[in-house]
Amino acid sequence: LNRISGFFNVLYSNLVYKSDSKNIKMDLDWSKDETSLLSLCGGDFDAPIEFDFFQKREREFATRKKHIGSAETTVNDLMVAAGHGKSMIISKDGERRGEFVVLQAECFGFAVASKVLTVATEAKELSEAKSMVAASKLQAAELVKEEFEKAHLEAEAREKSERLANIALAEAEEAAKSTKAESLNAAGEAERIRKFGFLGTLKFQFVGKELANVERLQFIGKSDPFFVLQKVESEEAGRIQWSTAFVSPVVMDDLNPTWEQSSVEVNDLCSTDLYEPIRVVVFDWEKNGKHRLIGHFDTTVHNIISAQEASVEIPMTKGKEMTGRISVPYAELVGLEDQMAAENRAKELAEKADKAHFFALGARHRAKHASITAKRAQNVALEVRQTLQVASEEATKAMRIGMEKTVTHRLEELGLDYT
Predict the structure, then answer these.
(1) Where would I find the beta strands (DSSP E) of 74-111?
(2) 3-class SS of residue 342
(3) Which residue in 223, 225, 261, 227 sits closest to 245, CA to CA?
(4) What's the distance, Cα to Cα, between the start and end of the chain in Å?
(5) Reduced to 3 states, what is the DSSP secondary structure of residue 416?
(6) Is the separation of the CB atoms in 316 and 282 below 8 Å?
(7) Residue 24 in contact with residue 55, Cβ under 8 Å?
């Protein structure tokens, strides 16, 4: 059922020869055979070649191969061993596994052996020269590759700088647009204040205390007080002409009235100064429109605010007679802007808008420069890439030429047989 045989392979870079199988014995005797020198050693008689010996066990359903050992030699060593009857050691993992004897080894078919050796030497030198050229081309290609990688990184960095510059430009232009709008609004506001005076609202509440009862029939009812805010209309020869700016609701039949909270635009009371005089006049409302005077007092917007903060009561008179008191439980100025403040704000925003505009111009210049630099870096990277492609092709071509079997070509030129 079992048949055991042995064979060997010869390797020069790759498998170049396989012997026939012989029935296994302690000593095997293979028949004479031949192979091409070019495939065996590439024309170099000192090139290392390897003999691998195997044991083959054939069974009914399977064949198994077992490695016995190997021996490394050269064509020159084989011919020397054949001429002197030298045996060669077979080993595996440093252990001696046997030996083999070369009974015959010769090169034939050449016109002159020395000429063949000369051709092989020349071919080898040519191959080495071509290999050196290939190595030089490969080294040049590697240098160009390094240059390309640097150029590529530089191009990526420049592209990133361009993106950041464009983002900064967009932000700068948006800031310039925003500050310009703010500046125009502030300038318009300053112009409106310049034209109409203060902008803002006086919110307040008055409470009357112990007002004089000016009803004709005092035993029947009490006064129905309301108040009027008046501002200076004109002044001639020390006489002030007052005009009505605000009229409060009426509180019926009450000498200690609490009027509801009211509001009035500041520029309806004064034009450029919170210390401009205003007059508060309290009347007893009459159905026929002939309202009776209860009393009055002169004050300013500033003093109304101060009276609320100090919780003081303002006396009210009619002629020389005191006719009651007015307190201010609530008073505040909302959204107040005077002319000077508005003009200062307009000036500041105009300066800010100018700075933003010039910054945007600088950002635009930087973005343009970044774009030009990025484009230049891309072109450099493209040129280096093309150079790399040419260098790689030249290196590949040189390596291919270096690997050609120059011995074969040279022997064919000389008309020599190389089998």
Answers:
(1) 87-92, 95-101
(2) helix
(3) 227
(4) 41
(5) coil
(6) yes
(7) yes
Q: Which of 185, 189, 339, 188 is closest to 270 using CA atoms? A: 339
**Closest listed residue to residue 126, CA positions, set 405, 346, 415:** 405
Q: Cβ–Cβ contacts within 10 Å for residue 137, how many?
A: 20
Q: Which residue has the tokens 């081309």?
A: 137
| Pick from 260, 273, 330, 338: nearest CA to 301 | 273
Tokens of 81: 């061993």
Per DSSP, helices labelled H in 275-338 are 301-310
Q: Which residues pair with 283 in a beta bridge?
A: 226, 293
Q: How far apart are CA 355 and CA 233, in angstroms?
A: 44
pLDDT averaged per 10 residues in sequence order, the chain, 419 residues = 56 74 67 78 80 80 82 86 84 90 74 51 62 77 84 88 90 89 81 69 95 82 94 85 94 96 90 86 94 95 92 93 96 78 79 88 89 88 85 77 54 53
φ/ψ bin of 173: left (φ > 0), alpha (ψ from -120 to 50), beta (otherwise): alpha
295: β partners: 282
pTM of the full predicted structure? 0.42
- What are the residues whose beta carbons fall under 8 Å from the beta carbon of 84, sequence distance 6 or more? none
Query: What is the C-alpha separation between 236 and 234, in angstroms, rounded?
Result: 7
- For residue 36, the 8-state DSSP code is -
CA distance 241 to 251: 27
Q: Which amino acid is at 89?
A: I
User: In sequence order, what are the residues at sequence separation of 6 or more whose Cβ sits closer than 8 angstroms to the Cβ of residue 394?
Assistant: 137, 140, 141
